[in-house]
Design a protein that fits this description.
By secondary structure, this protein is mostly helical. It has one domain. It has helices spanning about 1-5, 25-40, 65-80, 90-110, 130-150, 150-170, 190-200, 215-235, 235-255, 265-290, 300-305, 305-320, 335-340, 350-375, and strands spanning about 10-15, 380. Strands 1-2 form a two-stranded antiparallel sheet. α8 (about 215-235) runs parallel beside α10. The two termini are about 15 Å apart.
Length: about 375
């Protein structure tokens, strides 16, 4: 398998023995987010899903809404750890650009790929924004912020992004003369920009949750993670907790004028999700890296190959949905497996749907475990 992976142009394999000493808590939190992404993205049927495994309709917060901001938070923490001793030189800049471009390309590939001829979607309706595209863009901006600014400037940038985004999206009139709104409408600045920039290349006809303007909030979440990563490296866990409590307080206060909203990635959403992620990271750090406990450590099997497992799960899910079987009704592989193995008279449809999703998570847990014990770490 190692020999095969050497020929993949977008991925590289890094033996465990050559890797820096890792904080188990960081790998576990990263793993929890990847497991969460796979869980919420692969139900047996979208018509029967328990509410916590769905995004909020618009304003509000569910457990599912925490997954992506937690991942971008941990991207920030990882930047603080990985680039702690890196110089802001051409070599480092080239690596940052390379990694960002690879992530964006993988996102485009997932959007465009078809598992049958012509193997690529018609560009006319191809979705351009996406999860991996956002990760790549956020990583690029945040890594440069880390390299070329100090902590004080990073705090200023974080505050400036949140306040500037708030003023823009709530108070600046649109080009059509309308006053902006925060509801789902083309008079919402985020939707207005995405609609006019991307047109048919969006997730929905009127908006995209990984759109352009809301990326400002996503960058803020990553910079939040950078600041917490610096405190973690200094073992200032109490300061992390204090910072988290303050962020939660101001986030819920801000919610009254700028509602918590994942699709808009509102500033209140940045503060609340960042505060919760910080509290969880502090708890995991105490449990794993201070107390040296092992219960729950197996999430690191997801966390040490995060992009590879997320990409594989998204790729296979797309194939399972699109490839049909030559049996009665021509069901997709996904439909056939779900209805044959999971839909049972003694189970509710929501429970069957959840069991299917858990089975998918279990499959990628096993794959992550195999990669881990073979010391195969695939890096983009």
């Amino acid at each position: 398998m190692c020999d095969l992976l050497k020929f993949l142009p977008l991925l590289s394999v890094q033996p465990k023995s050559t890797m820096k000493q890792r904080l188990l808590s960081v790998d576990v939190l990263r793993g929890i987010t990847i497991a969460g992404m796979i869980l919420v993205n692969t139900p047996g049927t979208w018509s029967a899903v328990y509410p916590p495994l769905l995004h909020a309709d618009w304003h509000g917060l569910t457990a599912t809404d925490l997954v992506f901001p937690f991942f971008l938070f941990i991207v920030g923490v990882s930047i603080a750890i990985a680039y702690e001793r890196k110089k802001a030189d051409a070599k480092t800049f080239k690596k940052i650009v390379s990694r960002s471009v690879k992530l964006i390309f993988l996102g485009f590939f997932l959007a465009a790929f078809l598992p049958f001829p012509p193997f690529l979607k018609d560009f006319e309706t191809l979705r351009l924004p996406g999860v991996l595209q956002r990760i790549g863009l956020v990583f690029f901006i945040s890594a440069l912020v880390y390299l070329y600014t100090n902590t004080r400037k990073q705090i200023v940038i974080l505050g400036g992004l949140m306040v500037g985004y708030f003023i823009w999206i709530k108070y600046i009139p649109l080009p059509n003369g309308h006053l902006p709104v925060l509801e789902r409408s083309l008079d919402n600045w985020a939707q207005y920009i995405d609609f006019h920039l991307f047109g048919k290349h969006m997730w929905k006809t009127d908006y995209d949750p990984e759109g352009l303007l809301s990326t400002l909030g996503a960058v803020a979440s990553c910079i939040f993670g950078i600041l917490m990563g610096k405190l973690l490296l200094q073992k200032r866990v109490r300061d992390m907790v204090v910072f988290a409590v303050i962020a939660l307080f101001f986030g819920f206060v801000w919610h009254m004028s700028f509602p918590i909203n994942k699709a808009l990635w509102s500033s209140s959403f940045v503060l609340v999700t960042g505060g919760l992620a910080t509290l969880l990271l502090a708890a995991l750090y105490y449990w794993f890296d201070v107390q040296q406990r092992t219960l729950g450590a197996s999430f690191q099997f997801f966390g040490t190959n995060p992009i590879a497992l997320f990409f594989a799960s998204s790729f296979m899910a797309k194939c399972f949905y699109l490839i049909t079987l030559p049996v009665e009704g021509n069901p997709s592989i996904h439909q056939f497996l779900f209805e044959t193995l999971y839909v049972q008279d003694f189970l509710s449809l929501k429970t069957s749907s959840l069991l299917y999703a858990l089975s998918v998570v279990a499959f990628y847990y096993i794959l992550g475990y195999i990669l881990y014990i073979k010391r195969i770490f695939i890096k983009v």
